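Quick illustration, no need to memorize.
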Amino acid sequence: MADESPWLVVGLGNPGPGYAGNRHNVGQMVLDELADRGRMTFKTHKTNARVAEGRTAPGGPRYVLAKPNSYMNLSGGPTGALLRFYRIAPDHLVVVHDELDIPFDTVKLKRGGGHGGHNGIRDIASAAGTPEFVRVRVGIGRPPGRMDAADFVLRDFSGEEKRSLPNLLVDAADAVELVAREGLEAAQLRFHTAR
């Protein structure tokens, strides 16, 4: 049964408590939401990642949720190792990451394409041998004024953003589940249509 193949969902971020609340770590925050839904627990894995396995709903798709222990720009090594370890093809890989070019509180999805300057995506495409995997892009907006983008992504969400953040994480987790259950097009239809 081909569709019984699990989905590898990689949440991008940087390791350690100092980065946990950063905008750059929103991908890992989404994985926490998915893990909570399926009462899954993250455990250390030999692929240099923390991994949780299970389903978010009875009879639903199987997930391997992974948070690389590497820094964001080196996410490819753990992701490639996970694909090999679980024998998952890149068409069952979903990468959840922050996106500067999308307004805060917005979720967009795509398969393939360029990395748009996102070094974590660039490294994963190289390790996977293809850019043809699904990206769940979680909008964090542009830095204010003349703030450097690198500084902006390594800051925690503002007080106002933190009030909306739980809803954004729910939307992004819903998007992952919709991709796994019904396919990318169905998820795009829901999340790219004005609500």
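The chain has six helices and seven strands.
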